[in-house]
Amino acid sequence: MCAKKIAVLTSGGDAPGMNAAVRAVVRTAIDEGFEVYGVMRGYNGLLKNDFVPMNIRSVSDTIHKGGTSLYTARSPEFNSPEGVAKAAKNCMDNDIYGVVVIGGDGSFRGARDLSNAGVPCIAIPGTIDNDITSSDYTIGFDTAMNTVVDMVDRLRDTTESHDRCSVVEVMGRRCGDIALYTGIATGATAILVPEVPYDIEKDVIARIKSSSATGKKHFIVIVAEGVGGVEEISKRIEAETGIESRPSILGHVQRGGSPTLRDRLIASQMGYKAVKLLKEGKSNRVVVMQNSEIIDLDITEALNVKRKFDVDLFNASKVLSN
Ligand code: F6P
Predict the structure, then answer these.
(1) What is the CA radius of gyration of the chain?
(2) Is the per-residue pLDDT at 178 higher than 70?
(3) Is the predicted pLDDT of residue 286 greater than 70, yes or no?
(4) Ligand 1 within 6 A of 225 CB?
(5) What is the largest CA-CA distance in the chain?
(6) 169 lines ligand 1 (CB under 6 A)
(7) Ligand 1 pocket, mutate which of 108, 255, 263 (most atoms under 8 A from CB)
(8) Would you say residue 287 lies in a domain?
(9) From the CA of 254, how far away is ligand 1's center (Å)?
(10) Strand partners of residue 52
(11) Is the CB of 171 under 6 A from ligand 1?
(12) Domain hosting residue 32, numbered range
């Protein structure tokens, strides 16, 4: 009897650690007796029958690499009932029993739709934003934050030398976790996140003035991408405090680089778990981390979990950096 075939794809924005997850999926699948295929460029690969056979050695020398060796894409064509039906038919025509999808919540919706169309899918959270509400952690978050801390430490050198203020935009469209965590770790005087409305006078200018009054001469302000406006904020700080200010947008550099130990480890655990779930005959599940444990949930339920922002940590940041 032929071995059952499964496939793995990465979708949405890439994240450091995706390769470690793919590696874990491939090696666990082979250990479980599956034949395993990589799908190139996310859901687009399912639409184009772009399946690449993988073996133990296909994923050698990838655990330490950023990006995704399977490439990634956002696929508008897949996001329609016709697209999902075509992808499901291609899987069935190629005898693909199930698919492991690594990506963000858009990718999860795709995995749910494909599961409903008859192809069992298991999703793994891979995005630097940490914005998957059902999981305490998403693959890539730690690496991205360490990159931000490194970049802001460099900015701090020049900011300090010139007695300036640096207003730094970090990634996170709807989620301020990167901003909050890195803001604390870099001693930012103000942190602006999409979850908490802000008042520039009270939350930025007044904080800089009060720190300045106690002798502080250089300042870091961290702004999440979802808040934006670093140029205006920087001009306003300069105009109202007299402190020379410079805006910096860190951008996509945050998405690259070798994954940290944490990202490699969690990606490996999640990839292993995803294949075990397919082996058990499960479908429409997402692998998440809750209270340091790797568990699985129904994708539809997981997508309905409401976001919790760590207000206590946000309040603590205001006390710690002044
Ligand atoms: O992957 C998440 C993310 O990096 C967000 O933080 C950011 O808003 C977005 O992706 C950028 O997407 P793109 O790759 O399309 O520029």
Answers:
(1) 22
(2) yes
(3) yes
(4) yes
(5) 77
(6) no
(7) 255
(8) yes
(9) 10
(10) 38
(11) yes
(12) 5-140+259-303
122 and 12 together in one domain: yes
Token pair for residue 5? 């075939």
pLDDT greater than 70 at residue 38? yes
Known catalytic residue: 129? yes
Domain stop point among 218, 233, 256: 256
Q: Is the CB of 216 under 6 A from ligand 1?
A: no
Contacts of 8 (CB under 8 A, 6+ apart): 22, 25, 26, 29, 36, 37, 38, 39, 54, 70, 99, 100, 101, 102
Residues 81-130: pLDDT tens digits? 999 999 999 999 999 999 999 999 999 999 999 999 999 999 999 999 99
Encode pLDDT of 208-261 as tens digits. Answer: 999 999 999 999 999 999 999 999 999 999 999 999 999 999 999 999 999 999
> Does 127 contact ligand 1 (Cβ within 6 A)?
yes
pLDDT tens for 303-317 read 999 988 999 999 999
CB 18 within 8 A of CB 68: yes
- Write down the pTM of the prediction: 0.97
What integer pLDDT is reported at residue 71 of this predicted model? 98
pLDDT at 1: 58
Instruction: Specify whether 9 is located in the same domain as 136.
Output: yes
Return d(Cα 235, Cα 228) in angstroms, integer.
14
Helix (DSSP H) and strand (DSSP E) numbers for the chain? 11, 11
Of 14, 129, 177, 263, the catalytic one is 129
